[in-house]
Amino acid sequence: MLYDNIDNDALWWEVITGPSRVVKTLVSELTGSRSVFLKIFRDLPWRETMRHCVEYRLLEQRPEMSIEYIDCTDEDNDPALEPGRYLLERCCENVRVAHAYREGYRNENGRGGIVQYLRDKRVLKNRVLWLKGLREEHVDRWMQFCARYEPDGDPGGLFVVESSFDVPKGPLPAHIVRCDCEKTITPHDTLLFCSWLSARSNAGNGWKQYTAALASTLFMHDAEVAAFFIENTDFCTEAPVDRIYRLLAERNFDDRRGAVAEEFEAEPHTLYLARNRQTPEIERRVWKSQLQFAFPLIEEERVDFIKKYKEEVRSSLLQTGQDLRWYGRQVTEPLEAELGLLVQLMKMERENGTALLPNNEDSRRMNFLHSVRNNLAHMRCCSPKTLAKLFDNRGS
Q1: Sequence-ordered strand ranges (E) for 46-155
Q2: Pick from 184, 213, 241: which residue ends a domain?
Q3: Could you tell me if 157 and 68 lie in one domain?
Q4: Per DSSP, which regions of the chain are E strands?
């Protein structure tokens, strides 16, 4: 199968639509001599792979350029420093720094400013400086510096300011663009990714589709944890809620900030819920995915049953249904007979001694489907055993 041998992180950033568009956008803007404010979400999957994909594609098109990563969580990279002064000390040789100070470029507002010096001396030529790990209070300071620093047509001297904080609220100057991962990467991307991973398993089609729907619902945009969940869970025997708690026991996931944070960008991470024993909310998410996946399957089987026994259903509705009104009205058309009505008709026939509808495996299947549908309608999750019975009858 296509992409069977590709690693999960590469599949996500190079193949899946939304993530690959982020990479292409970054490369396009940088090759066009524009800096980028990269708005990421808290638990962006495989962010190192994203950076490497951008670097590889950028160097393919502009081999003279280089990307330098500045990790502001490193104590040697103090983001509290004035950006211009920090860059002067980082990017210039000592002699150059001393010369710059003598020329009066020592602070941002001196004669011409450090920004002017960096441009005049082309200190950042062919360089892309990628800042990551900035605290919220320092993002705006760097964005203000980038706004003042225009590369003026020279290659390089570009910045990528990567941040989960949405600091620059107003419009950006023409030489800076905004790339928002939260708007580019959608829930559909996570579902597509999970579908690719599930397709690699030997499970039936029903299990594959359910697994993808479940993982993408539970972990939303965190495809990295979703992949771990899919590849380390036996969905035929393990209840999802139990498995999530066991996953935490096997691996802390401390690198997933949403799993330990008390503030959220949207809904809490499922792993955060597990850490705090918020089982009802986890069960609600499992139920939601089962509801979305199982209801269409149940409805398809109802329609197939009615098509197979259309005349028997019609006769039963005309005969037995005279004494039965369904939600205030009498149903006469077979396809309008819902599962509950079909089950009630079969029950009344047994009590009356009539046998218009079949009393066989098909009818027992309708009773089972009605039970599943009723449980889901009352927000109760299906067990793996119940799902197996639902899928196995369909050759899934």
Answers
A1: 66-71, 127-132
A2: 184
A3: yes
A4: 35-39, 66-71, 127-132, 158-163, 176-180
DSSP 12: I
**What total of structural domains would you count in the chain?**
2
E strands of 107-243, at which residues?
127-132, 158-163, 176-180
> Do 267 and 370 share a domain, yes or no?
yes
Q: What is the pLDDT of residues 155-183, one digit of tens each?
A: 668 999 999 887 767 788 889 999 999 89
CA distance 123 to 88: 9
Q: Which two tokens stand for residue 387?
A: 């799902």
Domain assignment present for 352: no
DSSP string, 26-46: HHHHHHTT-EEEEE--TT-TT
What would the two tokens of residue 143 be? 């964005």
Residue 49 pLDDT > 50: yes
- The CATH number given to whatever domain includes residue 91 is 3.40.50
Query: CA 316, CA 322: separation in Å to the nearest integer?
Result: 9
Query: 111 is in which domain, residue-wise?
Result: 8-184
Q: How far, in Å, CA of 11 to CA of 4, rounded?
A: 9
* 114 to 24, 105, 161: CA distances (angstroms): 32, 5, 19
Q: Is the pTM of this model over 0.85?
A: no
Paired tokens of 113: 């400013």
